[in-house]
Amino acid sequence: MLDRTKAFTVVRAASRLQVLAARRRAQREAEEAADGETQPLVEEAENGVVDPQRAAAIAEAESRRAAFGQCRSMTMRRPPVPPAWWKSDLQALKEILSNWMNVLLVAVPLGLAAGYLKWDAAWVFSLNFLALIPLALVLGDVTEDLALRYGSVIGGLINATFGNIVEIILSVAALLNGLYGVVAASLLGSILSNLLLVLGCSFFFGGLYNKTQRFNATGNQASGSLLFLAALGFLIPTGAGLLFGGGADHNPQEVVLGISRGTAVILLICYACYLGFQLYTHTDLFEDEPNEEGEAQEPMMTLFTSVAMLTAITVVVAMASEFLTSSLEEFSKSSGLGEAFLGTIILPIAGNACEHMTAVIVATKNKMDLSMGVAIGSSIQVALFAVPFAVVVGWATGHPFTLSFDPFSAMALMLSVAQTNFVTAGATSHWLLGVQLIALYVLISLAYFFK
């Protein structure tokens, strides 16, 4: 989570500096206006105007200015007059929306209208899918801006909560619609996308700009072992569903459901331990390096605007996700694309757009630790939090969602985790390693396409 925070800070450093510069210009203008309030009185006195009614005012103004000049030290400054909050927030919003992909925001009202007016499933699915991509980008920027206000620990918790909110909302919406296969496919696809596509593109484009790049071996080892633990957590219920036979007193589905719920609780505990390790007990291992541009660490927007935007975007994402998942079955039939391919390959593109762009940008700047933290950290969040959370939500709402994936999906996850650990074992990267990860992702996508 701290790596995600630092990565977003690197990407948005220039934008934050522009917003802060505009804010300081407004403060200086306000100070100059305040200094000029008594200037007309002084000019009248210099021009020889003798007005008995203004003599006292002139004397009092000069007295205040003289006293202030005597008492003011070299380090004292007049308290700045803050500019109107809405001007600063408008400038920040302009910088956040400056990304060219935000032109897709036009699909947000169209997608919601398509869902409410019951348009054809192809239009409902396509428009809401396109709407989720810019919403994920803006949500990432707003979340990061809010996290900067509260320091590393609370900021990391905010990022942990909202970092994969799009995937969580998508999975819950599909779960409540009874699309258990889509839930499993979308969450599994998010893990595969981050591990193979996002990390592979980071290695590839980072290697084009830098011949060889290095990253922290200790952090990579800890992340790799957590991912392998999560993969085993998915493999055990899957193996139980295949190998455990039913009897007079045992229903295999009930056995797998019990194993899945127990496994989900254990994985959530492991995720809480992971948060405690990174954000509390061993924060020194994840501290930011000294930043030459310390002003870039300040939030761009006011607290009210950040919370309001975060709430509004989350509500819109929930609505778009509901329309998207409700139209998926009909769209699958009309387009000929399988639900497994749509859930595992297509849907994660919308949820991972923010991580993908951030990881690639910081990789080209030779900050591979941050890029690895975004790509693998997001995979850990989905594997140890989003997937078990979906099981717990299903448990609470009466939907029997389990961790028993189909054998091919379980195999694909284990192979992806193993390949990622092989590629990152040397704590160095170059563009050829990126090609290998992207190639494996294409192979898995090809298999799901014909599945």
From TrEMBL:
Gene Ontology biological process terms in this record: intracellular calcium ion homeostasis
Domain of life: Eukaryota
Sodium/calcium exchanger membrane region domain boundaries: 122-279, 306-446
Protein location: Endomembrane system; Vacuole membrane
Gene3D superfamilies: NCX, central ion-binding region
Record field: transmembrane: 96-117, 123-142, 154-176, 182-205, 226-247, 259-280, 301-320, 340-362, 374-396, 431-450
Stretches of the chain forming a coiled coil according to its record: none
One CC-aspect GO term: plant-type vacuole membrane
GO molecular function: calcium:proton antiporter activity
Main location, first listed in the record: membrane
Keywords: Antiport, Calcium, Calcium transport, Ion transport, Membrane, Transmembrane, Transmembrane helix, Transport, Vacuole
Any Pfam family matching the protein: Na_Ca_ex
Topology in membrane: Multi-pass membrane protein
Purpose: Vacuolar cation/proton exchanger (CAX). Translocates Ca(2+) and other metal ions into vacuoles using the proton gradient formed by H(+)-ATPase and H(+)-pyrophosphatase.
Similarity comment text for this entry: Belongs to the Ca(2+):cation antiporter (CaCA) (TC 2.A.19) family. Cation/proton exchanger (CAX) subfamily.
NCBIfam families listed in its UniProt record: caca2, cax
Name this polypeptide is given: Vacuolar cation/proton exchanger
Organism placement in taxonomy: Eukaryota, Viridiplantae, Chlorophyta, core chlorophytes, Chlorophyceae
